[in-house]
Amino acid sequence: MLKKIGLVVLVLSFCLAGVSVNAAGLTLGAGTVAGTTTLDLSGAVGSAITLGATTTTGAIGIGAALTTGAITLGNNSQTSATTIYGGGTGSASAVNAVNITGTLAGTTTGESHGLNVVTTGTTGAGGNLVGVNSVLTASGAAGLWESAVYGKVVQPAGQALAGGYISGGEFEVNNANTGAMNEMFPLVLDSNNAAASYHPTSAYIWVQDFGTAKMPNLFNITGATIGAGNMVQTAAKSGVVSTHSLRIQINGTAYYIPMSTTQTFN
Is the pTM of this model over 0.85? Predict the structure, then answer.
């Protein structure tokens, strides 16, 4: 009889207080009221907690029913990496190995981010720092195109920004040091081809003009000072025979770069 009473008390304790294993630094639902779904996984420094280590199918949800509050993985004193693995099986439809969906509620009055990545570090001799690194290793020869990074802005009809602009990607180099302390390139394009030659239409930049309306300019440069030693300089050249011209915008003024269907410009 006493054994049965002890078993009942043990079961009730598990239901009301969860399961607590203090020696291992692991607590399952400790201190929760019966019927709730609170799950607290906390371990001592250096311990590991694994969710779904042997699971190959199904889904694991963290904060699936959460509508307010924050979900945090790791902390700002962490000295080791946080690794997220994803996978997918190819099919006729789009497949995402790791899917992140963000919703910014309300109307933004400042600069808001769907995905915010902030990295700090110190370079040493021969070292490099990269804020975001994307590497695509692709195989197969039946596809249409491959890209390591793809940026796209979808602007609904009738919602043009008043006095603003949209862009598929924006890069900025912000140097707080005075003087020309090092070379600065907001965008670097590297070509590394192990083949003997390139396809004849290959180029560092491919401009594709989709849609009904056509883009009026190839470049739009603002904030430039026209003069000797600057990016845009005043110069005159006579005797150049061109068959076409390429228009760019500099500080709101249209300029035309002469082009010719002959390499000798005559």
Answer: no
